[in-house]
Amino acid sequence: MNAESDERIEAAGKAAPGSAAGGTTKVERELGSRAPGFIKASRPLHLSWQVGVFVVGLGVVVAGVLMLVLPGPGWLVIFGGMAIWATEFVWAQLVLRWTKRKVTEAAQRALDPKVRRRNIILTTVGLVIMAVLVGIYVWKFGLALPWTVDDQRQGRSGSTADMG
After folding, report:
1. DSSP state for residue 53 in the 8-state scheme
2. pTM, whole model, 2 decimals?
């Protein structure tokens, strides 16, 4: 009566532990639905549960995609929507596992002393170049504060000659 296929569950049980995670010893959660038992017991109820989870997850993912171009934490919201989907769908669970694995690998690479040294050097060079460009701009055009630009254009540099 479960919406999951029996073959998928058997195949997951036969797979070597850690084979999907690249040999990690961390115990991963079982793939499949995390719906309450009384919902899984009824196929129509479970199907409607899955539709509801899909619609809610889709709404969150769409909001995250919109936040990529609008202000907001777009990627965080997208991964939140994926986590909602992962409560019910195996494909979303596999995508989240792969994403977590890649993020962990990237974090470990970033902590490598050679990579950290390279990143620090590149950041320092970039900041020096930016400081030189800002210095050249200020030397060439002067430092005009945004709130005094209109006054300078109109010839009113704070004098009271115009009044009266």
Report:
1. H
2. 0.49
Distance CA 133, CA 116 (A): 26
- CA-to-CA distance for 110 and 27, rounded, in angstroms? 25
Alpha helices in 3-157 (DSSP H): 6-14, 37-40, 43-69, 74-86, 90-110, 113-141, 149-153
Long-range contact pairs involving 92-99 (C-beta distance under 8 Å, separation at least 24): 92/57, 93/29, 93/31, 94/31, 97/20, 97/21, 97/28
- The conformational region for residue 105 under phi > 0 = left, psi -120 to 50 = alpha, else beta, is alpha
Structural tokens at position 21: 């995670």
pLDDT, tens digit, 9 for 90 and up, residues 100-125: 899 899 888 888 888 889 989 999 99
Q: Whose CA is closest to 97, among 76, 79, 75?
A: 79
Residue-averaged pLDDT of the chain: 77
77 within 8 A of 100, measured Cβ to Cβ: no
